[in-house]
C-alpha cells in the first residue's frame, strides 16, 4: 500500500529496535536518521555489538574487508575495474522493462540464507526478542535474519537507493512478513516484481535529517532554501522567471545570503574519490582566496583521508585551511561526523558527491554535482537524479573554475535546487515514524 500520511502532526512516540551494519556509510547514515525510534536513541550494529559470537564477528569482518578492498581496488588501472565489475555483477539491478516476474532467487541470496540457516545472526535476534517492539533496519540481511529466527514483532526494512537488486527481497518473497519502507516509486514497483505483496510495501521516501527540515511546516528547510537561492541565482534570472512558484513555496528570496557560494564535496566510506576534492580546491583557489567561494571537504571518519586533505591543501598554499575559505569535516565518531555533516549542509549551496544515499539529499533543495558512480545501485541513483532534474554529471574537476560559473550564471543550479525540493520526497523520516506508530 502507498503510505502517504506525510503531514502527520506528531512524530511517533513508539519505539523500535533500529539495527544497522557498520559497513560503509549508507546503512549507518540511514539508521542515524531513525535513531529517535530506538531505546536511548541507540542503534544496534548487527556486526559489532557487545557479546557477538566470535564466529559471527569473523564472518562480518571478512565481508567488510572484501567490500572495502574492492571499493579501493577499483582505482587500479585495467585490472581494478575488471575485478570490481565482476563483484558488481553479483548485486546488479536488472532492467525494469519489460515488466516480468523477477522473483526467482539468485546465487548470492541463496548463499546468504545458507549462512543464516547455520546460525548467522541468531544470537542478536534472540537478544532483541527480550523487548517486544518492532525491528527497523536499512540492511536487508538483518531483516532476513529476524524473519528466519522468528522475531515476533513487525520487521521493517528501509531501502536506501532509488532502485534495488533482487537481493533485497527474501528467498520466499510471497510468504515474507517483512514490511518495506520504499525510498522511491520505482523501488515500490520493483519489490512487487520480486514477489513482495503490495500490502507489505509502503512508499515512505528516504529518511532525511529532521534537523534540516523543521517538522511538517518545513520551517528550517524553507529558510535555508531562500538563502541558498540567493547564492545559486546571482543574476536573479531563475527566480524572476519563476516568481509565482517561488513565492508560493518559499516566500521572498533575499538579495544576499551573507556568505560566499559554498560547495561541499563528500567522499565515500572507503575514502574513494578523495582526489577529486583536491582538484576542486586547486581549480577554485583564486575564487576561494577572494572569498567568492567556500569549499567544504567531507573526509568522513578516516583519519588518513583527513590527513590527505590537510597535507594537500597546505601544498596548495592553504596554510590555515579552516580560515582560508576551506573547511574539512572529520570525526572519529561516526554519529558526531553525521551531525557535523548535516549541520554543514544547512549552509551548503551545492553538494558534490558520488550518487550514494546522499542522492536523496537533493530533496533538501541542494543541487548535486555527480561524481562517477561506483556500483550498479549508484548508476540507478544517478539516473533518478537526472530524471528529476536535480543534478548534473561533473565535468573535469580541474576546470571547475570555468564551467561552474557558466552554469551558475544561467540559473541552472537554482533550477536544480527547486526541482529537487519539489520532486523528491522530503518527509521520509516522519512517514516512517508514523508508520511504526500505526503498526506496533
Write the layout of secondary structure elements.
Layout: E1 17-20, H1 25-33, E2 44-45, H2 54-73, H3 79-89, H4 107-117, H5 122-128, E3 135-137, H6 140-148, E4 155-158, E5 179-182, H7 185-193, E6 201-203, H8 219-232, H9 237-241, H10 243-249, E7 261-266, H11 274-283, H12 285-289, E8 293-300, H13 303-315, E9 326-330, H14 334-345, E10 350-353, E11 368-370, H15 376-388, E12 391-393, H16 400-409, H17 412-423, H18 428-438
Structure description:
- With 440 residues, this protein is α/β, with parallel strands linked by helices.
- The protein folds into 2 domains: 17-206 and 428-438, no CATH class; 211-423, Rossmann fold, CATH 3.40.50.
- The chain contains 18 helices and 12 strands.
- The strands form 2 sheets. A 6-stranded parallel beta sheet has the order 2-1-3-4-5-6, with helices on both faces.
- The relative contact order is 0.14.
- Mean pLDDT is 90; it is low at 1-14.
